[in-house]
Design brief:
The structure holds two protein chains of two kinds. Chain A is an alpha/beta fold. Chain A contains 15 helices and 23 strands. By secondary structure, chain B is of the alpha+beta class. The chains are: A alpha/beta, B alpha+beta. At the A-B interface, strand 9 and helix 10 of A face helix 5 and helix 9 of B.
Chain lengths: 502, 350
């Protein structure tokens, strides 16, 4: 019995009266949806992923894409998605891959939290007229300071660990060269330099054309150790050990061989065309003690001049792990929530494994405080930060700063079609195909990313001002500035926030 | 709103409570009759070596025994008594105020560098969180706190503060806006040697509270000011900062100002902000903190609440209003208004 074809998901129509047969849709679609046959543009809707490149590039607005109504028999349990996954796996016997972040409609905790504002007795502060301080330092802080008092002179005895100085608590997270194009990385690099913040290299090494931005780069050491050598470590402003990723907790990474071109090969230090497979665990880390050894080895290798971060996926025991990380000499712990994006992940992991970053950060912050060590380590939250309000809320829940990923890609033009794993990104972002990569102008895209960070920073200042706060330190962990709106009581207990009206 | 006034006689000469009562009453417009209080340093010369632990009891007969037991586990009760109060039609006696003179046994806190203080702090937190109906609201040596829900003059008359003498006095007239007006919520707030009066609101309270609680302090008074006493205790007593440095932590210079400082000061200010960022206080405030050898007044970083200082001989006055100071001291030698975040410090010279 054959399975046959499944219904078309997106329907494309061309308004023939408007179409002037310029052929840009044909040129722009890497999925071969459009084909020109003399005076007609033919459409194969079945291949469409709704990346919207054709719609955006059509000079006459002649193309429309509509999500087709499901034409399976309606069923609340055996949904279209469930059935198609079974058809595909019955056909192939393989793991289903997916790109971007979690596509399940879990309730978003951010959307059930509201921020507080001042009225009269605690006056709001106007950011247009008063200074607002969003400067953030990421890194280890001492529990207390030691001073020497000498005839009225005070001098500091404590030596501070190196910290990253951020002009705004918004950084761009790790997206490797391989997962995204070099032009995409360059765009982000220019944007973070412009806005006084930092970006992650991902696990793909550091391409020489990014060297001018190296003091804004956090270099990553993942389980595959691709691209890692002393030169790489020394170039970065900080080093991040990636244990897990929010989109796929508990598993490694896989960059298919076809994406490993000459350039990626040099950067990652692997042969051209070979699959880059990061193991699920680091093969030298099976305990907190092992992790501590790697943290300290990386510090030793870089003369204790670079902050070392450890990134874990948000899972139910994140708090205990984070406490171990804080005691491992690491300078920051990165918590990546289950809405974090990815170039490619098994769909079942992306959609079903992990927990929301809101709950994870709240519980990590609480655990570190209960052990009296919260102040000594920074917390970076990532995975599902969609707007400036999310930034304000996660900082109020205890984060020092955030990583954005998908939001930065969207600022560059990404339409969240979710097919990054195919390497055909028509926007030149998640692809290595030279003709597609060339579509992304780093000058233009960097401006867009910088604009986004700048705009969010302004909004964050306004939110802080409304809350009567003129420095980011006073928003951090300030759960009093949050209220839960229609959140269940047990979640509010984890978040340690009161309900609206209380 | 809220009115605050503080005075120190730097020569250590003692003043009775008449003057501060009149000065605080002059600021009745700044209150709502829901809370007023006074602190006096040097109140108990006969018990100056003992910690004066003040407790509000809801029902003395039922709860006092539990407090006694807790105290006796950690030291000796030298003397205890109900704090005398005087009938006043405008103040209903809600709690029974009690004072213990207590000597902790330092051998019971062997790993501490300040074992007696740590024992008393532990007792204050323990009693307030585990013994219902008992609230320790003051615990310093030779320090008395008098507070209740009422207007300043009524609270003063209720305790008859003119019968007490001291070299430092603090007064506070409360206008509660965010939290209930109750005896425990009236100022001054005290822990060990630290007493705090505050006008304003601390919008960073959520951050400050979570910070201070990670060092073993427990906030039980349902109001933001409480953290200030604990922050001073942590920063100055336990971490060894001077009061000036503590103010730099609580109301630090802006980063733009720090960037322009010469290197030595820049390094110092940056280290303080990095290390004590969670202790920094935001929102509108004018605060006076007293300790046995001085007082410190300061405002928030953009001075959203008023603070004025006056001097006359060896006396330094700090208040919300110059008029209040002039009630106590009509002939002032100088009147100044400190800049935002700038500490005003009066030290005992004896």
């Amino acid at each position: 019995m054959t399975i046959g074809s499944v219904p078309v998901r997106f329907g494309i129509t061309i308004d023939r009266a408007r179409c002037m047969l310029c052929g840009r849709c044909v040129e722009n679609c890497p999925y071969d949806v459009f084909r020109r046959d003399e005076d007609t543009i033919h459409v194969n809707s079945r291949k469409c992923v709704a990346c919207h490149r054709c719609v955006a590039m059509c000079p006459r607005d002649a193309i429309s894409i509509r999500q087709r109504p499901v034409d399976y028999r309606d069923h609340p349990v055996w949904t279209e998605e469930v059935r198609e996954a079974i058809y595909n796996q019955a056909r192939t016997g393989k793991i289903i891959l997916a790109g971007m972040g979690n596509a399940k409609p879990y309730p978003v905790i951010f959307d059930r939290l509201v921020l507080d504002a001042c009225q009269v007795t605690n006056p709001s502060i106007d950011p247009l007229r008063e200074p607002m301080e969003l400067r953030t330092y990421i890194g280890k802080k001492p529990k207390k300071l030691e001073f020497r008092y000498d005839n009225g002179d005070i001098s500091l005895e404590t030596t501070l660990s190196p910290n990253l100085e951020l002009a705004t608590p918004i950084m761009v997270g790790h997206m490797s060269y391989g997962a995204i194009s070099l032009n995409a990385q360059k765009s982000i690099a220019m944007a973070v330099k412009e806005t006084g913040t930092f970006m992650g290299t991902g696990e793909g090494g550091l391409h020489p054309s990014l060297y001018p931005y190296q003091d804004r780069m956090i270099v990553q050491v993942a389980s595959g150790r691709f691209g890692v050598n002393i030169d790489y470590l020394e170039r970065g402003a900080a080093i991040e050990i990636k244990i897990g990723q929010g989109a796929k907790p508990g598993i490694g990474g896989h960059l298919p061989g076809e994406k490993v071109c000459e350039d990626v090969s040099c950067t990652r230090m692997i042969p051209v065309g070979s699959d880059a497979i990061s193991p699920a665990p680091h093969h030298d880390i099976y305990s907190i003690e092992d992790l501590k050894q790697l943290v300290r080895s990386l510090k030793e290798a870089t003369s204790w001049q670079k902050p070392v971060f450890v990134k874990i996926a948000a899972v139910h025991n994140s708090a205990a792990i984070a406490a171990g990380i804080a005691r491992s000499s690491a300078d920051a712990v990165v918590i990546d929530g289950f809405r974090g994006g990815t170039g490619a992940a098994p769909r079942v992991f992306r959609d079903h494994v992990g927990i929301p970053v809101e709950a994870a950060v709240a519980s990590v912050d609480a655990k570190l405080r209960s052990q009296g060590i919260r102040n000594e380590v920074s917390i970076i939250a990532s995975g599902g930060i969609r707007e400036s309000a999310d930034v304000a809320k996660i900082i109020a829940l205890g984060a020092d700063a955030v990583y954005i990923g998908t939001a930065a890609l969207v600022a560059m033009g990404c339409r969240v079609c979710g097919t990054c794993y195919r390497g055909l990104c028509p926007w030149g972002i998640a692809t290595q195909r030279p003709d597609l990569v060339a579509r992304l102008d780093p000058e233009v895209a960097s401006k867009q990313v910088a604009n986004l960070i700048h705009a969010w920073t302004l909004e964050l200042s306004e939110l802080m001002g409304a809350a009567g706060i003129n420095s980011i330190e006073s928003l951090r962990g300030n759960r009093d500035r949050l209220r839960g709106y229609l959140l269940d009581e047990s979640t509010m207990r984890v978040l340690d926030v009161k309900p609206v009206g209380a | 709103m809220c009115g605050i006034i503080a005075v120190i006689d730097r020569a250590g000469r003692r003043m009775d409570g008449t003057g501060i009562r009149a000065a605080l009453s002059m600021m009745d417009e700044r209150g709502s009759g829901e809370g007023a209080g006074y602190a006096v340093y040097g109140a108990f010369p006969e018990f100056s070596d003992s910690y004066a632990i003040h407790v509000f009891f809801d029902a003395v007969h039922e709860t006092k025994a539990a407090v006694d037991r807790e105290l006796e586990k950690w030291g000796t009760i030298v003397h205890d008594e109900e704090i005398p109060t005087y009938e006043n039609r405008r103040i209903r006696k809600v709690h029974t105020p009690w004072r213990y003179f207590f000597k902790p046994d330092p051998a019971l806190m062997p790993r501490s560098t300040t074992p007696e203080d740590d024992i008393v702090m532990h007792l204050a937190m323990k009693i307030n969180t585990t013994i219902p109906g008992a609230l320790v609201y003051s615990s310093g040596k030779n320090i008395a706190i008098f507070k209740a829900s009422g207007w300043p003059e009524d609270v003063a008359d209720f305790y008859r503060i003119q019968d007490y003498e001291g070299y430092i006095w603090l007064g506070h007239n409360r206008y509660p806006t965010n939290t209930p007006g109750w005896w425990g919520g009236a100022h001054p707030f005290n822990l060990l040697g630290w007493s705090v009066v505050h006008n304003g609101e601390i919008t960073s309270y959520g951050t400050n509270r979570r910070y201070i609680e990670s060092f073993g302090y427990r906030c039980t008074m349902f109001t933001d000011t409480e953290v200030v006493a604990y922050l001073f205790d942590l920063l100055v007593r336990r971490h060894g900062l001077t009061p000036e440095l503590a103010v730099k932590a609580l109301a630090p210079p802006f980063w733009d100002e720090i960037d322009c400082m010469e290197e030595r000061e820049r390094t110092l200010c940056k280290a303080i902000r990095l290390t004590y960022g969670s202790a920094m206080m935001n929102g509108p405030f004018a605060i006076v903190v007293a300790k046995p050898d001085g007082i410190v007044g300061f405002t928030d970083r953009i001075k959203l609440r008023p603070l004025v200082c006056g001097t006359a001989g060896m006396r330094l006055y700090i208040s919300s209003e110059e008029a209040a100071i002039r009630v106590m001291e009509p002939e002032l030698e100088s009147v100044t208004m400190p800049a935002a975040g700038e500490p005003v410090i009066g030290r005992l010279c004896v």
